[in-house]
Every structure is written in structure tokens, then in C-alpha cells.
Amino acid sequence: MNVVFAAVALVGALLLLAKPAVAERPKLDIPGTITVSAALFAIVYGFAHVESTSWTDPVVLASMVAGVVLLAVFVWLESWVAHPLLPLRLVLDRTRGGSFLAVFVIGMGMFSIFLFLTYYLEASLGYSPIKTGLAFLPMVGGIVLASTTGPVLLLPRVGPKVVISASFLVAATGMAFLTQLELDSTYAAHIMPGLILLGLGLGGVMTTAFQGATAGVHHEDSGVASALINTGQQVGGSISTALLTTVASSAATDYLSSHKPGALTAAQAGVESYTATLAWGAGFFVVGAVLAAFLIPNTALAPSEGEPVIAH
Fold it and tell me: Of 21, 192, 225, 253, which residue is 20 to 30 A from 146 by alpha carbon distance?
């Protein structure tokens, strides 16, 4: 199904987007690309390997250490190469750096929602795939509402720090609401309210963080800044999926080992695993609120190069 949407986007891009004038061919930072790719692979592999072993497994520890060391090497490389893959000036600015971290946290939390809440709706409540997709619409509606009203009504009045921190806390509240799910929970009373809160919170964070991540960016860095937003979400989601799969497995195993075997016990173990991951997701969002409160200055976001300066 996604091919249809991709085809429409491709046709629209070819017809509507202007072809940029390229004065010089950009050079690829091959050492940086290889180093950061290897670092992220090692970290994600380490998290994924925990599920079948333990946190003290030599492979897990070696992967984690190698990933951290390679990330440090990547930062060092980017500080002196002539054409860095990631110019450090992009992330050393407090507004942009804090916004990129917020995007990373969004990725960690959102993937836990879509993956494990989908498991709950289909495996525990017996929803069909289409009904499950429709069940997420209140969250999508909340995201649209917050994304379209937040920049106009809230951001000029309270500033990016307050908007991002408060929105993360709203999303954490919605996630915490969903941790109360049981086998006999109903959609209207136990699922939809949490999804609406999640949508409102995530919409407020995403709009403001995306603006903050590109605030004051010069045209030569605009592509990198945009790519880093997408990369931050994907990396956050990859690490979250690997980590929370381990959390879910451990929660289910603990429940099964302490209860009498049976079909009901197995079903409840599944619910315990899903709600455990949702609790971790709520924790991610709380951490995101704290990081935003400490890192992001509460000043008006600077426009990117070429954008008009709007007085509020």
C-alpha cells in the first residue's frame, strides 16, 4: 500500500519542486559515514542481542562499548575533516542540539506505541489490522490539532522550552494512562483517552522540535539538518524497538514463572509485556521533558536562512 503514496509523492516532487542550482559538487565524508554507521549498528545490535542473552553477555558488552567508542571517534573526525558528514556547529547550538535530542526521544516513544499497542489491540483484543489502524486515528487527530495550533497560539507566548517540556509531559501522561490496560479493557474508556493525550503531546513536541532543529540554519546546512531530524527518529526507534523487545520478553517471562500455566495466564502475560513497554515509553517522555527544560533556551526560534522574520 505504501508504494501508492510514494508514487504520488514522487510525481508531486518532480512536478512541483524547483531544481536547485548546484555551484559545486559536494564531497562525501567517507570516514565519517563508515564510522557512524558502524557505531549505530553496534549499539542497536547490542540492545537486540540482550533479548536472547543478558546485559552481562560479552557480545552485548563488546557491542555497546564499541558503539560508544566509534561515536566518540566520529565526533573527533567531524571536528577536523574539511567536509564533515555532520558539521558540529549544527548540534552545538543549544536550541538545535536540544531539539535534535527531543526528536530522538520522540522516535523512541512513538515506535513503542505503534509496535506494542498494535500487539495489544490485535493479540489481546482481537482487532483486525484495519480496525487497529483506525483505532490510532484519535492520536493522529491530536497530532494534527497540536501541530497546527501550537506554533500559532503557544510558541510565541511561552517559548520553545515550555512548549516542548509541557508537551512531553502530556504525552507521558497519555502513555501512563495506557499502562493500566487489561484483558477486558474497552477502547472508548481505556484506550482512546490515552491516544488523544499522546497525540496532543507528540504534536506539540514534533512541531516545535522540528522548527528548533532548523532554527538559524544556513542554506548549506539545511539538507544535513533535515536529514538529521529523520535520522534521529529512526535511530531512536531502532534502539527503542531492540530495548523494549527485551523488556517485553522479560516481563512476560516473569509473569509466566510466577503464575499457574494456562491460556488465561499466557494471555495476561502478553498484556503485562505490553504495559511494561508502555511504562518505559512514559519514562522516555519524562526524560525528554527534563532534557528540554535544561538544554533548550526559552527564546524565540531564529528563522532559517531565506525565511522571513515574523514579529510576534
Answer: 225
